[in-house]
Every structure is written in C-alpha cells, then in structure tokens.
Amino acid sequence: MRQLGQGRWLGKLLVAGLFAAAVLHTPGTDLDRSDVYGTEGNEPGLDADRLPVKKSGFFFTEYLANEVARLQSPDGTGTGGGQANQGSTAGQADPGIQANPAGQANPAVQAGQGQESQGKGSNMVVAGQGGSRGGTGPSIYGNIVTEGEKEVHPQDMILGGATLTLLRSQSDSQMLSAILQTSQGKLIVVDGGLGADGDYLRSQIQARGSHVAAWLLTHPHGDHAGALYKILQDEAAGLQSGIQIDGIYYSFAAPEWYSVNDPTEQTMAHAIIGSFSGLPEGMLNTVGRGQTIQVDDVTVQVMNDRYETSQDKGNNAGIVYKIWVNGKSILFLGDMAEEGGRRLLSEVGAEGLKSDIVQMAHHGQNGVDEEFYKAVNPSICLWPTPQWLWDSVGSRYRTSETKGWMTHLNVQRHYCTKDGDQVIR
Prior knowledge:
Structural class: alpha/beta
Number of strands: 17
CATH class of the largest domain: Alpha Beta
Shape: globular
Order of helices and strands: HHEEEEEHEHEEHHEEEHEEHEHEHHEE
Radius of gyration: 24 Å
Largest sheet: 8 strands, mixed
Number of domains: 2
C-alpha cells in the first residue's frame, strides 16, 4: 500500500515535470546563453527573471498577456499598486504574431518596424526598469518610427547649407559610412564601411566632386575601415578613380597590439596599417584628445586619446569625433563600448558630450550605456543599422534596449540606414 502511494506521487511528479518541459520547450523556444542579451564574446548567464521567449505558441501568448497586464498595473503584479518588477524581460516575439488586432498601438508592446508594422506582425519586447546594464530607462521599450517610415518629412535646414549623408550597407551588414559635404563643397568622410561598400562609397565621393579634405577613421575594424582599404588598394593597383584625399586622420596602435588584444579583427588592422606605408608624406595624421581639424567652416574636434581597457578592447580603443556645422554638433562614436564611454564621460563631462546629433554607438546596440546618452541628450539619432539588427533578430542583440533609452529621452527624429541612404541638410 505504501509502495503504491509512492508510485502515484512519483507519477504526478513526472507529469508535472513533463508539463514544465513543454512550457520551456514549446517548438522554437529553446534557450541558451546567447539568447539573453548576448554580446560579442561577453555573454552573461541566464537569469531566472529574464528568460527569453523566441517563438509563438499557446504558452507564449499566455505569458505575454500576463506580463502585459502585470506591467500595466500600478504595482507590477496585475492587481494594482507600484511599478513593474525590475529586470523582467521577455525576449523577441515571433514576427507572425499581430501586436494589436485593432490596429492601435499597445502601450505595453513594442510595435514592429518597417514592413513588420504593416500587418506582418511585430517584434514585441517587454522589459523591467533598469535592464541588464543598470540603466534607469522606461519599464516598457517604446516604439520608434524612423524618418524613412514617415509619410511627411521635415523640411527644416539644420546644417546651414552643408549636407550629411549616412550611407546604407551594400551587403546588408552592420557598417558605418558617412559623408559630410561643407557648404563650400569639400568632403569629410567618416569611416566608410566594409570592402563591399568601397565601390559605392567611391561613386558617392565622385558624385560630390571627388575632393576629400579629411577622412576620419574611428578604429581599424573591417566594417569601418574596409572600404578605405579597398580604395587605397585599387589606387595602388593602378585603378585611378580621380579621388583626391588631402588627409587621413586616425589613432591606431601598433599591429601587434591588435594580434594580442583584438585578434578577431587583427587581419584588417594589419592590412589598413600596411596600406598606409605607400601614401604620400603629409597625408597621414595621428590624432589625439583636444586636436581640431578645420575644413571650410566645419570644425572637427577629437574627443579622446585611444583607450586601453579591460573589456571590448578593440571597440573601446576607437576615437570619438565631434563635428561642428552651422552651430550644430554631430557626435560620431564609432563602436565605443561601455568602459570607453564611461571614461570619456568622466574626462569631458556631460557638457562636453552634449550634441544635437549622435551616431549610435556600435550600430545601435551593445555600445555606450544609458548614462552616456543622457549626457549627450540628442535631438536626432543616426542609426547605422541594417533591418535585421534594427529588429533585434536573435535575442543576443540589444537594439531594443537602446531604443528604449532614446524613447525615454524623447528623441523624435531617427535616421536609420535600414531605410536606405539618410540625408540631413
């Protein structure tokens, strides 16, 4: 009799275990370390209160409904009184789930961007205050509508005759490539993108008169310096493009530094540094904090010396440039990460970082932290971000976290390369 009772108890336990497994392993919901705010080589472990839900299904629908009700309630429990529990995050939803059948924005659910917002579904992220990096952003990530998604575009002249163009990727990759044309016609190029972007960048430079007064490099990663490397290699091979480059501005470590501290990017670092050896004297300019570069009526300010950090060493060793045009300031962050961002903030203070326009660090995710962006306090954000990264495909990407910060800062204008080349005049 005792053995039979124990068998029934074990049977019930087995059924309960199978049910729990079904919840956590509904098809498409397998979890691993990279699914929770994964970062490049620096993934935190799974936290019990931040389990991502990657696909649709009964259990996801029930979970999302409960989570939305909880976050909308005053006490974060679904029954009234306080704020949402801190750190609670649901991961990316299946694109096939409709955010709101009535067609109206749900304040607790982030609607999809671009095509996703046209009826195919949405990326839904619900998050507790603070998030995984200790910020103080909103408890629910806001919906950002980019300028490319708007039907009516502002006609105001921001740059007083100058034109800033953020170029789209030619390979659907993350990259950074920007051309600033002064009111007198000279060009300032920032980074340039991958080697695959080289031909397009060259054509855009040629269309603007072919005269690059200053080529600014943030750091020697392939998605930033690859296009310049291709152009220099083509020129060395006798493929004359007619492009005139007055000066290249950068701060790189010795090649062996990248072999030790940034091995995944050492090939491009070695290549671009090697390509400099054949350039005319006077074209190469090593920069440091406080230096300024004048091109017509545009002033470029070098914000930092190259940092030596304990983490994300290659990105944190990048240079930040602040460009002044017609009384407006544009902050180019490259791929600056948290540690480098904190050092820069401590060195120059919030007043030194304050800018009208900011290029989102590391393509809009896993870059500088929320406190840094608060100090910048921009009116316009530049997102060098392809569609898949904008949509945070795969929960290892933290784009939605950054979107939440910008919503909290009430930034209204967002230019994103997922929509094509972006132009600000």
